[in-house]
Design brief:
This protein is α+β, with helices and mostly antiparallel strands. The chain binds adenosine-5'-diphosphate (ADP) and magnesium ion. The site of adenosine-5'-diphosphate has 17 residues, from helix 2 and helix 3. This is Endoplasmin homolog.
Length: about 625
Amino acid sequence: RNSAEKFEFQAEVSRLMDIIINSLYSNKDIFLRELISNASDALDKIRFLTLTDKEALGEGDTAKLEIQIKLDKENKILSIRDRGVGMTKEDLIKNLGTIAKSGTSAFVEKMQTGGDLNLIGQFGVGFYSVYLVADYVEVVSKHNDDKQYVWESKADGSFAISEDTWNEPLGRGTEIKLHLRDEAKEYLEEGKLKDLVKKYSEFINFPIYLWATKEVDVEVPADEEESSEEEESTTERTEEEETEDDEEKKPKTKTVKETTTEWELLNDMKAVWLRSPKEVTEEEYAKFYHSLAKDFGDDKPMTWSHFSAEGDVEFKALLFVPPKAPHDLYESYYNANKSNLKLYVRRVFISDEFDDLLPKYLSFLMGIVDSDTLPLNVSREMLQQHSSLKTIKKKLIRKALDMIRKLAEEDPDEYSNKEKTDDEKSAMEEKKGQYAKFWNEFGKSVKLGIIEDATNRNRLAKLLRFESSKSDGKLVSLDEYISRMKSGQKDIFYLTGSSKELTDWWKKALDTEGIDSVKISNRLHNTPCVVVTSKYGWSSNMEKIMQAQTLSDASKQAYMRGKRVLEINPRHPIIKELRDKVAQDSDSEGLKQTARLVYQTALMESGFNLPDPKDFASS
Ligand code: ADP
Ligand code: MG
């Protein structure tokens, strides 16, 4: 086209597209889910704009917030159209090609190490999955603030944008036209598309229509039968079986099947969270979780809580504990404003970037909050300040902690179950080990909560689990520990660290170095480790003074032993490398030697004297 402007894809985007085009990934279905999810996002956006600007919605068909799917079998084109917010020319250039999102390179990296393409939506690059099934894609889009444009690309490193002077005007919204590859012809089958929408897009809150053929019963005069066969007819007709009614009563008409085409609604748009918990099946909850999390694996959520709050502030909420912690949960924990809660006001999606619905330590929860109390026609900024949010947050925290506590209560491995009857116990058998699983994935969040949330500290403390010296590898709660304490025991001694193995190895490697304990430290930045004296031990100065005294070697040793603590920085490259190697061969003498060198360097830098080996020779 003459007026087309050409653009190069940003380098990372281009690599991503190459990977997708050449992918042998067999589950190509996912592209449809990604396109419908984008259409739904665009509809959410225009609906939100309409709250404060009634004009934005438009009139007639343009105002219909819906998604339409159409097949053109002859030309092998599958089109998905929405009446969402649309894209301006600038949006098309930025969003579909020239600006890489943070997820782009992360996803490319994942793919190169055998990651699952299914997770593409989580990385914010779902659109490009169209190239799993198409070799040429057109995006026609009309935004309220601009003319209608066409974006097109054959995934050959570049895309073109032209002002649209030939397609039907969209009014507003976006139509994606996929020119399907030969191997992807199955997506021209209506049945296939219906199945896919059912499977992946059941929970989309806007109607999804398919331009579908349909057989309808039509009454025709019975004597038309013969002549109709001779007529040139474009509609297909098949004869109904004769009824056994006797001749005389038989009307002079008969029923034939005719094929017509019409918009067929594929989803029922019942918002799961508005339904009564009694009516929602476990499977529906699991499927809803998958669509929320953009994670379509087989793992079910660990648990969920579905409730409604009444009183001054009314809202419904559905919270999920995911099956696994996301890979970046604790990276940039204090900087990122990441929330996985979607906020709705009276079924209208408002935002999934509200900072203050849940405290940071609960940011691993996924879910939805839908409030009737919050006002609809104010900006996000004003909503963010609304006093009801504090109440909502408070209730959400309580419910979240209750939900986690129940995970433990229902787990037969847990101490708290000792008072359950045998029947109750057998009913809980399938929940065996679920709390330990939770603790492994999210235990750190509970610990962070203890630090951050003074109000709920007692509730959180009940959720803590530790390995104790007597627990034989099992996790115990504080209550359980205390109930087993010997009478007269006043103190609880504890070791800290993110993993017992990582510190055990160091203790062994430094066995001859006179060290009491090793712990993982989060306060270090550029040093691999430091040596400190434990609370009741000596400072390095004190140690020097003691060494100058005329004490017997044996008593020096007694003093020195059990006083020094080695703090290790788990993020330091030396420590990381060592840890990786130890994981492969924990008995290696060479590695132990390295550990001793690292320790001795830290010892000198911390102002301690190097221990005289003979001090410890007898140990
Ligand atoms: P994500 O949806 O996670 O942002 P995608 O790769 O699926 O990532 O989409 C990229 C961007 O392209 C979207 O953020 C949006 O700005 C734009 N976009 C894609 N599809 C549409 C659409 N149907 N209507 C409006 N904008 C769209
Ligand atoms: Mg998307």
